[in-house]
Amino acid sequence: MAVRRGGPTRRVLVLWVPLVLLMAFTLFPFWWMLMTSIKPDTELYDAKQSPLWVKAATGAHYRDLFTQLPFLTWVGNSLLVSGTATLLSLAIGTLAGYSLARLKFRGATTLGTIIFVAYLVPTTMLFLPLAFVVRWLGLYNTPWALIATYPTFLVPFCSWFLMGYFKTIPREIEECAIIDGCSRAQALWRIVLPLATPGILSAGIFAFTFSWNEFIYALTFVQSPSYKTIPVGVVGQLSTGDVLFWGKLMAAAVLGSVPIALIYSALSGHFAAGLTTGAVKG
Amino acid sequence: MNGGTGRLLARDAVVGYLWVTPALLLLGSLVAYPFLLALYWSLTTKTAGIPGVFVGLDNYVYLLGSPTFRQTLANTFVFTASSVAAKLVLGMAAALVLDQTFRGRNLARGVFLLPWIVPTSLSALAWLWIYDDFFGVISRVAIDVGLRREPIPFLSDSILAMFAVVLVNVWRGVSFFTVSFLAGMQAVGQELYEAAETDGAGAARRFWHVTLPGLRPILAVATLFSVVWTFSDFTIVYIITRGGPANSTHLLATLAYQTAIFGGKVGEGLAISSFMFPLLVLVIFLQLHFLRRAQS
Predict the structure, then answer these.
(1) Phi and psi (nearest 5°) for A188?
(2) ipTM value of the model?
């Protein structure tokens, strides 16, 4: 509430104290992640050392990720899967979203409802039967298993999100172009898409994030280490029997989270607006 | 002129059908079809290797008599109700803080979103390490400052374990509520607040009579989304407790995974995840209701 009253004491109580608590709660796991990732094992597993601070920082855990674990392969797989699934879903979602926002045809509202309902179906209800479908398609244990299945939640999201965005663009602009002889495809490609770039960019960032973070499909549809994505590759290290792995795991958690955090901070203006246009899966 | 418009509309309809076809083909083959497959297979004895035979509702009857499953159903209910309630209340409190004017507000809002945008699997690992009996930070600090002599058995005590996974879910998901509320607050007219203040309403009454009613539509929609995502959650429990100790934190999704993937009992696993269906239908029904109201 923007109405402000009362003295500095009141402001400390209603703003600064809760704000500090909130930030501490939010950031604490990240702090712990970061500290662990730069602590030598001798400090990590010594009860006499302070758990919250590091004495002699080391980059050894980060180095181990690349020398002892196929971390770079996981990064490559995550990039390939997330990038391809995102582009594919943006293309399909743009066409569907534009049609539902602009073109008048029988059943358009029902189709919009179907897409919205598909968005609500949880991945945890679908992963089992999808595992069989993926196998029948011959995609099991390949990156294509994920590239083909991630659009099941990305396309509904992109269609719905972009439908909202297209509705905010004045329809007169493209109608002029169509009267001048443009086809719908030309109008979409040359006029609407350039205007919708911020919306498409936001949808793309969300879609990329959902793919980057996806866990249960990647856990179920891919087995061999050379095709694992970051989340599944890193979590798989828990069951290796090695117990002194926390430094490495937290280094991997830092590296797996940083790219996403950077993308968001660079484009923070867009995403805040985007979040409210279409609610988001998380 | 009329003929031209008519032709244009007819052509638009063709283009419209054509352009939604890829989305519909995808959703038909990789959402609707597997969904129906799941419902059918949940009525069979299918395992990973054999197709299985049709047994009607046997899997469901068996599950309803199984103590593990009943416990899982209760866990899912407790996990969802407490997580969503906590996210709602904390999300509202955070929105009231982050809606005030102060230096660094955008930074604070960005930081607050971090748990929601980074991979849950990786942050859940950090929490697993936080909860570690011997070297976890909570146990260590509690012992160091003399609060406790023994490490805190977060993940080997059934009540603490449930609290632990709920806390992670709240940490991860609260900012979705906050962002929704912040957007909703922008939409509540400033003049309403000023009018309320002129009438002598204090901060608490302004919140109760102006902010809250203004946020009602977005509150309903955000809560419904959160309910679906929370009762179908998998990653947090899979990584932090694996459903333990003694099944006390198993959710429908983690038990379905364990039964079908580790146990090979696909039919039974699908019957377990089918228990999400009734709640999903209810949420879809309510969401569509709110959606229609927002559109009209």
Answers:
(1) -65, -50
(2) 0.92
